[in-house]
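Why do we bother with holo predictions? Because pocket geometry can differ from the apo form. Keep that in mind while you read this record for adenosine-5-diphosphoribose.
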Amino acid sequence: MDDLESLAAEIDRASTVVALTGAGISAPSGVPTFRGDDGVWEHFDEGQFTYGRFQRDPAGFWDDRGDLQRELFGEAYEPNAAHVALAELAAEGYLDAVVTQNTDGLHRDATARVRGATADGENDTTDESEGTDHEILELHGNARRVRCVDCGRRQDADPVFERAEDGDLPPRCDCGGTFKPDVVLFGEQLPGAVIQRARTLAGESDVFLAIGSSLVVQPAASLPRQAAADGTLAVINLEETPCDGDAAVVCRADVTEAVPRLRELVR
Ligand code: APR
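The structure, written out:
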């Protein structure tokens, strides 16, 4: 945690600061991580949740996805001190963007909480600000929504998962198209505009904070290295990551201690 002082000074001087977050930032809220001890992929077979399976066998995909959705989002989660500290840093003008791999929507909830409003949950994955103090880019989509693969209509995921649970498999939109969770599945390309925007942010950042991610899933995992080429990379994560060697600061601490501490030091 000692290095956080020098990092805070860099953030103070920087004109563009970007955070990339992963499952580790939501773990203290109770959301399971994917890897590591008791990670979701220890209990579920990643191979059943690919885009290829969705296309080949949408009914089977939806059947299994219901179990995964319950495991991941079966409870109502609240943003924790790390989400809130990032939202506060943004509101105070120190943080320009949060690029997240998480699909839990907790950065938006934290931002809404800091602004004293309620999250509307309607934002697009590429949403730029929409009244927030900073940009929140949900690289892998948002699991609270589903999207029709034909007409593109988005809607709240809960009623659609309920229909699937009642045997309406695969659940379909009024237009007849199949609904898909509004997340990027394994084997599915990220929307071009989204990854392009993330690369631009990484390239423009003077300070890039990689927080709570194992940094092994591409293309998100390439962003820290890209940012380090021209700016300062800091990694805040409990475990070692493949990007630690590129980082000026590696903080092996719980996000709920390190991120609020960083915010205190910046102010
Ligand atoms: N504080 C700091 N770090 C933590 C904490 C914590 N409280 N809890 C967990 N971590 C760290 C773990 O040590 C681990 O390295 O968070 C990291 C989470 O890594 P992953 O579970 O691999 O999550 P992530 O990097 O977000 O995964 C990327 O993989 O399966 C896909 O689409 C899914 O978006 C996800 C992507």
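The longest strand covers residues 141-148.
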